[in-house]
Design a protein that fits this description.
25% strand; alpha+beta; binds coenzyme A; globular; Aminopeptidase; 184 residues
């Protein structure tokens, strides 16, 4: 698939308190369909603003992908114990370029480092990309009315995640092994 030029300058890193405004702006920029699929239903701007304010917590790990000068997607891990919940969002122009998969691997590593045994993700049954992503990473899918619970046990050998050594190099979506990020 032809790549957009800005993607070559994208990078993933762990987000902190100082990123809360960027997270809010990213979530508010989601087009209506993406917002619906992310939150599995209708949400107001006020809800999004409040959600973004609470997203960075002691028990959360959030990774962000920066492209074209802005935060374009986030991967959230919430919970510190045997079980945690995960969620992903990417702005439309950055979907279907493999970025969701890269973010997913960061979540799996963060979960493994924390000793989390079961990672749950909730998505709509119609969300083929999210289901495919979960299955690719050995999730068990349980269908409920209208949605799907993906249950992942991050214990098997995970896809490699390069350690951070100095400033992260730019992502090269056309090539392999150029993604870097901070781990928990
Ligand atoms: C779901 C989401 C995170 C996936 O990220 P992405 O970067 O768009 O997806 P990727 O490009 O990594 O593709 C994921 C997989 O889906 C496959 N895929 C892509 N488009 C597809 C489609 N229309 N139907 C089925 N599978 C599809 C890809 O081939 C890939 O599988 P593979 O790696 O085995 O080839 C992203 O699309 C998104 O933010 N969607 C809106 C919010 C959302 O749905 N969040 C999930 C609920 S929490």
């Amino acid at each position: 698939m032809p790549l957009k030029a800005p993607l070559r300058h994208a990078m993933i890193r762990k987000l902190g308190m100082f990123d809360r405004d960027g997270i809010r702006d990213h979530l508010l920029r989601l087009d209506p369909e993406t917002r619906w699929t992310r939150f599995a239903g209708a949400t107001s701007d006020d809800f999004i603003t409040g959600y973004a304010r609470r997203i960075i917590r002691m028990d959360s790990a959030v990774f962000g992908v920066f492209a074209d000068g802005r935060l374009r997607g986030i991967a959230e891990l919430h919970g510190w114990g045997p079980e945690a919940e995960a969620a992903l969002s990417l702005e439309r122009g950055w979907q279907s370029h493999g970025i969701g998969d890269e973010l997913f691997v960061h979540l799996l590593w963060a979960a493994k480092v924390r000793g989390i045994r079961a990672l749950k993700m909730y998505c709509l049954q119609s969300n083929a990309r999210m289901r495919q992503l979960a299955v690719k990473h050995n999730a068990t899918l349980i269908a409920r009315a209208g949605d799907v619970i993906a249950s992942i046990h991050p214990e098997w050998p995970l896809p490699p995640l390069p350690p951070v050594m100095g400033p992260p190099p730019p992502l090269n979506w056309a090539g392999a092994g150029s993604v870097t990020a901070q781990q928990t």
